[in-house]
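Each letter names a residue; structure tokens follow underneath. Both lines appear below:
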Amino acid sequence: MQRNLEALAGCPLFAGIREADMLAMLDCMQARSVAVDRGERVFREDSPAEYVGILLEGAAQVYREDFYGNRAIQAALRPGDLFGETFACAGVRRLPVSVEAVQPSRVLLIKLDRIIETCPSACGFHNQVVLNLLRVLAEKNLQLNQKLEITSRRTTREKLMAYLMAQAKRGGSDAFTIPFDRQGLADFLGVDRSALSAEIGKLRREGVIESERSAFRLLQPYR
């Protein structure tokens, strides 16, 4: 666990917690670290919604799957990202999503009741973690609203540019790297992959963007 303290320090759940207290806190919460292979599910749809997860190493995706196996990606996870907390806090019995590693990864799992219930040891950091959890839930709500704003656009081109401009604004730069390959981006935006690739090609020819795999640059204002 010592090697993952940097990722944990970057997790919003532990904001304001001293690194010196981190290991004692995780022990108090009975947190456990789990290694997962690429393609392995950390959480499976319809499994009990009782754990909060933190990605320590690697990369993962949160997605929904319809009756025919078509995926709609909800979020891409990087080290330090929290997942599963919304459903656990909402009290739903079964998860409506799956979380799958897209490269060899390591995750930290904590039962929600170990976070929100009164700590018998009266740990000084416990109240801070609960407050942080409330802030995370509020932030996730804002992120969901942003995604709805993007995916509610009418055309593939409008959805793509709304997403790219949001990523540029988030990073404060016209050059940025997104956490998706082409199929992942198509699944996130809810569009056909070939149509997405065609629009990227058109935007490049028009001099609106530059792109190389997952790296993009906005070259001019889009209207």
Notes: Residues 38 and 102 are 5 Å apart (CA to CA). The two ends are 48 Å apart (CA to CA).
